[in-house]
Amino acid sequence: MTSESASRSHEAQGGGPASADQQPDWPDPVRLREVTDRLAQAAPLVFTAECDALRSRLAAVAKGEALLLQGGDCAETFAGATEESVDGKLRTLLQMAVVLTHGASMPVVKVGRMAGQFAKPRSQPFERRGDTTLPVYRGDAVNGPAFTLRERTPDPDRLLHMYETSATTLNLVRALTAGGFADLARVHEWNRAFVAASPGGRRYERLADEIERALAFLRACGGRAGGLTTAEFFVSHEGLLLDYERALTRTDPATGRTYATSGHLLWIGERTRRPDGPHVEYFSGISNPIAIKLGPGATADTVLRYVDLLDPDREPGRLTFVVRMGAERVRDLLPLLVEKVASEEAPVCWVSDPMHGNTFVTESGHKTRHFDAVADELRGFVEVHRALGTHPGGVHLELTGDDVTECLGGSSAVARETLPQRYTTACDPRLNHSQALDLAFLLAEWYRNR
Ligand SMILES: O=C[C@H](O)[C@H](O)COP(=O)(O)O
Ligand SMILES: C=C(OP(=O)(O)O)C(=O)O
Ligand SMILES: [Mn+2]
């Protein structure tokens, strides 16, 4: 069964607000309480002013004046919080952002699926191998991936580890984006190297040349200071584990506003977006910018309900809809949702997640996605908005800076036989560095030719 076929429509579901979907079955509630009490005393990972800054950047996306680029691992791991790995993801996102900024002639709001993306909703609660059945791996925040009872038993102490690893990652992100790492000229040099080295990358030479000329022009104007050497970068994750999120929720005494302080932007996943469920209720009480994934089962009524429940003041930048319908369905299903929201004049951002509706499992047992399906869903998303005169506000991707072989195709031409070579994801297949750049160059062309 594919993960898509196992995901189900919330519109058809029962369940009350008390029963949160996709929560671990913690075996030791006393220890869970000790852990959440400790987290409730811990320093915030992000600050309210930063969350407000992101909301105002996203307001520009909602108005059609900027793009959102959000990406990172499907599931971060504790062991993966290394300088090399964070550096690779950041580098990839910065390279993509330069290409998109040029293609769309708009600012790009950069948000990592980083520093908190440790918990996963799953299609099945258990995994069976031979005669043994164990709880499914739900991300390093909950249990371990190894197929043993000890590893798969949810351990609340992992929430402390999640907090610490998020802090370490954020420290790296802050240091790298504040220093010379994010220098525009340097990021462009990396793009040049990509275009030169990748066989398929040659077709992007013209765009790279144009960026080079634009940079030379800026330099000639004396523009080296400020925005060209540093990057504004935010972090996000799925707000899945309500025990963790509630423990890190703080009220700003100056404004009386309440924020999740575990990340700048949190989103509600496709599997936990019941309008009367506890995730929607928790999100209605925080002031961060927030997002909701919309799968093929999302109805216009439900989407309008989200607007009323989560953005009653119609604040631009507060609410982002992340569409993940699948390449085959996005052109049919999305127009009605966009039209209804537009008719209510709700100032939301529309973003495409072209990954989660295009997942399938190969004969070899690898969960994968084909680059062409990913690109096709993204293109369909852009076409729908173009036809309606609304703004295709950006993209939400699972990617890594590493040269993994998890998704098929792209200019590096990953084939089915190649998948096992460097398949290292802890959950879903990610675009590798060159596939991510391929997608950025394609998207930049579509924006430029609008
Ligand atoms: O990103 C998440 C996956 O799509 C989700 O966790 C479901 O994956 P599964 O079908 O392997 O459980
Ligand atoms: C689980 C995820 O997505 P969705 O909720 O859209 O299935 C995810 O983003 O990893
Ligand atoms: Mn995923």
* Spans of at least 5 consecutive residues with low confidence: 1-10, 12-17
Please tell me the total number of domains: 1
Which outline best applies? globular
What is the rounded distance between the termini?
A: 38 Å
Spatial order of the strands forming the largest sheet? 11-10-9-8-5-2-1-14
Overall SS class: alpha/beta
Radius of gyration: 21 Å
Number of helices: 14
Order of helices and strands: HHHEHEEEHHHHEHEEEHEHEHEEEHEH
Counted beta strands? 14
- If you consult CATH, what is the topology? TIM Barrel
CATH class: Alpha Beta
If classified by CATH, what would the architecture be? Alpha-Beta Barrel
Q: How helical, in percent, are the residues?
A: 40-55%
- Major β-sheet annotation: 8 strands, parallel
Organism: Streptomyces coeruleofuscus
InterPro entries: Aldolase_TIM, DAHP_synth_2
Pfam families: DAHP_synth_2
Pathway: Metabolic intermediate biosynthesis; chorismate biosynthesis; chorismate from D-erythrose 4-phosphate and phosphoenolpyruvate: step 1/7
Offer a concise description of the structure.
This protein has 450 residues and is of the alpha/beta class.
Summarize the structure in words.
The chain is an alpha/beta fold. It has helices spanning 3-6, 29-41, 48-62, 83-104, 149-152, 157-178, 184-197, 205-220, 242-247, 278-284, 300-310, 330-343, 371-388, 433-448; strands at residues 67-72, 108-113, 126-129, 132-135, 233-238, 249-251, 258-260, 265-268, 290-294, 319-323, 349-352, 360-361, 367-368, 394-398. It has one domain: Aldolase class I (TIM Barrel). The chain contains 14 helices and 14 strands. Strand 12 and strand 13 (367-368) form a beta hairpin. The longest helix is centred in the first third of the chain and has 22 residues, at 83-104. The model is unreliable at 1-10 and 12-17 (pLDDT under 50). The structure holds erythose-4-phosphate, phosphoenolpyruvate and manganese (II) ion. Residues 74, 121, 269-271, 293, 324, 356, 428 line the site of phosphoenolpyruvate. Pathway: Metabolic intermediate biosynthesis; chorismate biosynthesis; chorismate from D-erythrose 4-phosphate and phosphoenolpyruvate: step 1/7. Belongs to the class-II DAHP synthase family. InterPro entries: Aldolase_TIM (IPR013785), DAHP_synth_2 (IPR002480). Keywords: Amino-acid biosynthesis, Aromatic amino acid biosynthesis, Transferase.
